[in-house]
Amino acid sequence: MNGTPLTGRDLTAALCVVLIWGTNFVAMKYGLRDFTPFQLGAGRFLFAVLPLVFFIRPPKLHWKWLLLYGLCQGVGQFGFVFLSLKVGMSAALASVILQTQVFFTAFYGFVLLGERPSRSLLAGLFLAALGLVCFAINYLGPEALAGGTTLDGFLLCLCGAAMWAASNIVVRRAQQATPHFDTLAFMVWSSLAPILPFIALSLLFDAPESRWHWTGAPLGTWAALAYLGWMATIVGYALWTGLLKRHPANRVAPFSLGVPVVGITAGMVALGDVITGWQWAGIGLIVAALTCVLFGPRLFGSAPR
Fold first, then answer.
1. Taking the CA atoms of the chain, what radius of gyration do you get in angstroms?
2. In terms of Cα–Cα distance, which of 165, 186, 206 is closest to 41?
3. What's the CA gap between 268 and 274, in Å, rounded?
4. Which of 75, 227, 297, 301 has the fewest CB atoms found within 10 Å of its own CB?
């Protein structure tokens, strides 16, 4: 990596990632119309695996990293997110709340890896905490149901963010233990791990009458599932990883701020999501917190406290 500016191809790739990851929350909502959360989880990762698993060799690393990542990112993150969207979370707000994974990752890094937080990260944590308070207040006032979300949905979405952060720690440890880390192979083969657990969860907890409802799903629902598996999982991560290999992380990471912007817009336009005043305040504080983390080192200095 060097200090060369992003090319037109790089900018196009970054914008594609923002659009794919921002709109994938709408695809989740469409998928949940005919699939239960656990069925959607199994389907997402089945699509992510096929047919690439037949053409990409397994990565050269210990199998435990594939299993841990698949369980944390697959069953953990997306299991909670799909449940959240089902019981009362809008696509627009999910795209914002999931970004708190940045701060959960920092907490896990401090506790498990001994990473000391920088001044900008501490400032971002404070702003993010205020943002979460605003989201929580929304469920206490008269606007509680106006935003189309529930407290259960909000808490489950936060659990999804926490599990996303856990998967980030797994990837760090896997990269440290693997001299030649192949991200695409890692993503494809780790996607095998969540499939059977999601099927087992569906058999255990889904109502009997819903277990075969997916067989009659319309073409649009299957298209949404394919979008989640191929575009959001494989294409999105492949483009993002390519950018990180060619350019420093501090040059690529700011594009992630576009994900909640696209997510909010897509949710409001495609699904008619409504956002209350307190939720707008929470969104503003979360985005400010992310901006502080990404650009704060220039203002506060990068040295940890």
1. 19
2. 206
3. 7
4. 301
Q: Where are the alpha helices (DSSP H) in the chain?
A: 8-31, 37-49, 63-69, 79-87, 91-97, 101-113, 119-138, 151-177, 183-190, 195-205, 219-226, 236-246, 249-252, 258-271, 277-300
Which of 224, 222, 213 minimizes the C-alpha distance to 270?
224
Q: Helices 183-190 and 236-246 meet at what angle, rounded to 10?
A: 150
DSSP states of 41-80 as a string? HHHHHHHHHTTGGGTSPPPSS-HHHHHHHIIIIIIIIIHH
Reading the chain (305 residues) residue by residue, the pLDDT tens digits are 455 677 888 889 989 999 999 999 999 999 999 999 999 999 999 999 998 999 999 998 999 999 999 999 999 999 999 999 999 899 999 999 998 888 888 888 888 877 777 788 788 888 888 988 888 887 776 555 555 688 899 999 999 999 988 988 888 888 888 888 888 889 899 999 999 999 999 999 999 888 888 888 899 999 999 999 999 988 887 788 778 767 766 677 678 778 888 999 999 999 998 888 888 998 899 888 888 877 766 665 554 44
pTM: predicted TM-score of the whole model, two decimal places: 0.86
Beta bridge partners of 97: none
